[in-house]
Design a protein that fits this description.
360 residues; mainly alpha; 2 domains; 16 helices; 0% strand; elongated
């Protein structure tokens, strides 16, 4: 099956949800949906419809494209089919994906102005480095102005920049390429089937965002605990619910830790004993689950943990939206202004001091 992007997967989800709720056969509905979907979505949907016509279930039909789909999406489908709540699970995935894309769009808008300022500053720096600075050095030599320590440092910086100025556009282009390449992996942890290069691109593109890693972690635990509460409410055994819920996050560490905890539960260990020795689960989750009184209310407890993490995620996203544009403006504009004040005006100040000296 052809690879399908997250944005197009969201569109396909909307079609699946509408067909399931309207009672339309999946093969017929998918073929009708393929007519007005994007190119990669159209090919994917047509092949999916063909496999369903051949008698495969939705889970089996989508399996050939598992390597080209997010691992979390495949796990979510399996969990949803197991619960008999496919439309609800697909709706949750769609809402989550759209919220990520909206946040990414807002960050992109916030980056436009600093990006323009950086491009202009780069060309101005070339003008200052290759035209203004050499002329100032000639004037200093002509009037035999003694160099101060600060002037020596500025001169060394200019000589260094003249030899390595191309590193600036290289860094800038690498950020743009990483941002484009990781377009559909925003706020996703490294999926099991994600290549090393995509992981690097994602880290370069988003790693500098304040609180990015913490935001990912809290989103994962919110999804993880919410899925467990839903699975348990449909009487899925806890050891199975842990593995299925962890798979729906795509987080390899959370998946391995949940599989280990699941093995402990199947071997006879209690949930408090098994999770207390875990190094990955945060202390808040451990505190909520180690009490014996909570073991009979796990659905409610996991649902409450999810609500707390979702609240943290919402607050952190709002904080990023507010602080990122201001921070970039202060750092970029303020840093450039300070740099030019030192690099361009310092030689003029030294020259004026020399001209105003009574010993001239």
């Amino acid at each position: 099956m052809p690879e399908i992007s997250i944005a197009n997967l969201v569109d396909l989800n909307d079609e699946l949800i509408a067909m399931i709720r309207a009672g339309i056969p999946l093969d017929q509905g998918l073929r009708n949906a393929a007519k007005h979907l994007n190119k990669d979505s159209k090919r994917f949907t047509e092949q999916l419809a063909l496999r369903i016509e051949e008698g495969f279930s939705l889970e089996e039909a989508i399996e050939p494209g598992a390597n080209d789909l997010p691992h979390s999406y495949i796990s979510l489908l399996k969990s949803a089919i197991r619960m008999g709540k496919l439309p609800e699970a697909l709706s949750a995935y769609t809402a989550f994906a759209r919220s990520r894309m909206e946040l990414r769009q807002e960050i992109s808008i916030a980056l436009i102005y600093p990006g323009i300022v950086l491009v202009m500053a780069f060309f101005l720096s070339l003008f200052a480095c290759f035209i203004i600075f050499p002329e100032l050095l000639e004037i200093h030599k002509m009037f035999e102005v003694p160099n101060t320590r600060l002037m020596d440092l500025v001169a060394k910086f200019f000589y260094f920049y003249q030899g390595w100025f191309l590193i600036v556009p290289v860094i800038f282009l690498s950020l743009i390429i990483s941002w484009k390449a990781s377009r559909f992996s925003f706020l996703l942890t490294r999926e099991k089937n994600t290549s090393f290069y995509k992981g690097v691109f994602t880290t370069v593109a988003y790693g500098w965002i304040p609180g990015y890693q913490k935001l990912i972690s809290e989103m994962n635990f919110s999804t993880f605990t919410k899925m467990i509460s839903i699975l348990l409410s449909y009487h899925v055994p806890l050891h199975e619910a842990l593995v299925l819920a962890a798979g729906s996050t795509g987080n390899s560490k959370l998946i391995s830790e949940s599989e280990l905890l699941s093995k402990k539960l199947k071997s006879g260990s209690s949930l408090p004993d098994g999770i207390q020795n875990s190094e990955y689960f945060p202390s808040y989750i451990k505190k909520m689950l180690i009490k014996d009184a909570h073991q009979n209310h796990l659905v409610r407890i996991f649902s409450e943990i999810s609500r707390v993490y979702q609240s943290r995620v919402s607050n952190r996203i709002d904080w990023v939206k507010r602080i990122l544009p201001i921070s970039l403006l202060v750092i970029v504009a303020g840093g450039i202004t300070a740099s030019y004040a030192i690099i361009v005006f310092l030689p003029f100040i030294e020259l004026l001091k020399m001209l105003g000296s009574p010993t001239l």
